[in-house]
Amino acid sequence: MSGRLEGKTAIVLGGSRGIGEGVVAVLVREGAHVVNCDLNQELGEAVAKRHAGACEFYRGDVARRADMQALAAHVLKQRGRIDILCQVAGIYPNHLIEDLPEEEWDRVLAVNLKGPFLAIQACFPSMKKNKSGRIVLTGSITGPHVTWPEHAHYSASKAGLVGLARATALEGAPFGITCNVVEPGNVETANLRRERGPDHMAAMARAVPLGRLALPEEIGEAMAFLASDAASYITGTTLVLDGGQILPEARL
Ligand SMILES: NC(=O)c1ccc[n+]([C@@H]2O[C@H](COP(=O)([O-])OP(=O)(O)OC[C@H]3O[C@@H](n4cnc5c(N)ncnc54)[C@H](O)[C@@H]3O)[C@@H](O)[C@H]2O)c1
Question: From atom 17 of ligand 1, which residue's Cα is the shortest distance away?
Answer without folding.
Answer: 18
